[in-house]
Prior knowledge:
8 helices
Amino acid sequence: MVSWKKLKSLKGFKTEIIDTESITTNVFVKNLRNKLNMSQRVFARVLGISEKTVEKWEQGANPVKGASSRLLFLLNKHSYLIDDLYKIHGDFSSDLKTNYSDKFYESYISNSFEEFNDYDDEKIIKNANSYRNNNEFEIRA
Length: 141
């Protein structure tokens, strides 16, 4: 992390705070929500706001301001951060068998994922290991 105090003392450097409120328009909010593949209801619950607030933002009736604007800006830039705001609990072993190869499922069951270190979808491995260790999945986008 950059030290603001040190930056202020350097000659030739100027700090600028991003005006996120001019960026987080109604179109921005809707595009972000769609990018995260969430309904208005789920998006609102995950962010800890009302569904009506999301609806008003997307209609352009209410502007996105302050901390909300900054949060949405960061979520758009680093969408994986949304994962730290919710968890999904349950037994996903039947879904793993249905949606992934038998080899992957057998590795999941036998607790050996070493052969999948270069597997394209590392989130699946991380989620399966998380489930195996904690009996829960953290969905990683």
